[in-house]
Amino acid sequence: MADISDDALLGDYDPAAYARPSVTVDLVLLGIRRGRLSALLMRREQPPQAGRWALPGGFVAIDESLDAAAARVLRDKVGLDGAHLEQLYSFGAVDRNPRMRIITIAYLALLREEQVEAAVRAGQVAVAALEGDPAAAIGEDRAPLPLAFDHQAILTLARDRLRGKIDYSDLAFAFLPPRFTLRALQDVHEAVLGTPLNKPAFRRRMLDRGWLVATGLREDEASHRPAELFTLGGARRPARSQ
Amino acid sequence: MADISDDALLGDYDPAAYARPSVTVDLVLLGIRRGRLSALLMRREQPPQAGRWALPGGFVAIDESLDAAAARVLRDKVGLDGAHLEQLYSFGAVDRNPRMRIITIAYLALLREEQVEAAVRAGQVAVAALEGDPAAAIGEDRAPLPLAFDHQAILTLARDRLRGKIDYSDLAFAFLPPRFTLRALQDVHEAVLGTPLNKPAFRRRMLDRGWLVATGLREDEASHRPAELFTLGGARRPARSQ
DNA sequence: TGACATATTCGCGTTACGCATATAAGTAAA
DNA sequence: TTTACTTATATGCGTAACGCGAATATGTCA
């Protein structure tokens, strides 16, 4: 490799003298669809890896922060606004892209059901359930979608991170509308974890956390006893760090 | 900003046509020193920010992965090998460096006491205790060291991440030699969390985890009953994801 | 009015943990 | 040799969290 001097960051180093990696952001768009954790993917039409499925992404512009680049990709490539966005991890293997050296900062984007449907209707993305380990993207026809580059590793890390955080953070609420039932919240947890949970224990735990505020309203369109609607209150504890 | 076409990642995009950010790695080197969580910092001799203290870092070469770049900086700038290294977070605010656009991938590096001392002896770095919120770097003379760029934010995130993970991951052992007493392990936890812990409860918790293997050996050089030495066994549960 | 489905609550056994206290095992000095 | 001292290690108990089965509540619909 090029010999980078010890005081590279200490003064008069000229980075233009060295070949520079490109930097992109990639979005892992996740939502709950039909009770399963699902991801939104774009089909690559051009080489490299034409025909494979990839995370929506884009280059980071010179005058744009990483968060801003992620928000721009969400808006321009997926057609969504206001989803929960948080940085996930950076991937920088030398050969992760065969054409050129690209370092990507992956972001987690959590969508409500209506946002998933809107994105699919907009036609840029397809939806696939995440199953197995490592996480495979299973299409509507139950066939796995072939993924481009290292995007399966990114998807797997995203799912595992979500699983690790769902139960002490407020991430679950990013999948839900402002008003939701405890059953809907439990459905989110179960879809993310891929395992059923005990209902009374889940209720107690969520209510004891003190985050939920009862609205007094009840769901309608139920052919049985309607459940109470809750909102996420402002008194959230600081989430544990990552 | 430059208008980056929608199919930037889909084919014939020429990234050389656009100005590209530089990419560095920065290392948050942490160790336990005199019972306090401490960081290793380098004094900047050249502008920008000459005289301030900074994380050791370096540019990512075109043919070098992020992890490899972090290991290289650890070796070349700090003079250490074999520390626990893990990626922390990427920082990409446009103005984080006044001279040029630099995106940095921050790494957490955990050192044993002897490694801290070796690095300090090598003379490239100084050691400072981390205290307060946001984390301030307190020098030997109890005066806070002025930090360069956004490095205080990076240090704070590193410390908070460590606090969040210490209790369900095996990170604590990276601060300890291969054989250690339960008291030493508790000292690590207390230094990281900045709070005393209940001794019997801590013992029980650690032993019930099943990670520790008793060696039958005892510490020496104690002027009282010597404690048993343990090692970290192979049967660790998969750590929770971040 | 009664069957049905789901929401919501209750009670109980188990486990994790904070905490005070006891016991064990070294060193060092009387 | 004994005793004080210090820290390691073990034990007992009260409390809080939680899994789980079962009971009760409240809607819709025939």
UniProtKB/TrEMBL annotation, chains A, B:
Keywords: Hydrolase. Pfam families: NUDIX, WHD_NrtR. One of its GO terms (molecular function) is 8-oxo-7,8-dihydrodeoxyguanosine triphosphate pyrophosphatase activity. It is an enzyme of class 3 (hydrolase). It comes from the Bacteria. Gene3D superfamilies: Nucleoside Triphosphate Pyrophosphohydrolase, Winged helix-like DNA-binding domain superfamily/Winged helix DNA-binding domain. The keyword Hydrolase applies. Its EC number is 3.6.1.55. InterPro entries: NUDIX_hydrolase-like_dom_sf, NUDIX_hydrolase_dom, WH-like_DNA-bd_sf, WH_DNA-bd_sf, WHD_NrtR. Residues 18-150 form the Nudix hydrolase domain. PANTHER family: ADP-RIBOSE PYROPHOSPHATASE, SLR1690 PROTEIN. This is 8-oxo-dGTP diphosphatase. It comes from Sphingomonas yantingensis. The lineage of its organism: Bacteria, Pseudomonadati, Pseudomonadota, Alphaproteobacteria, Sphingomonadales.
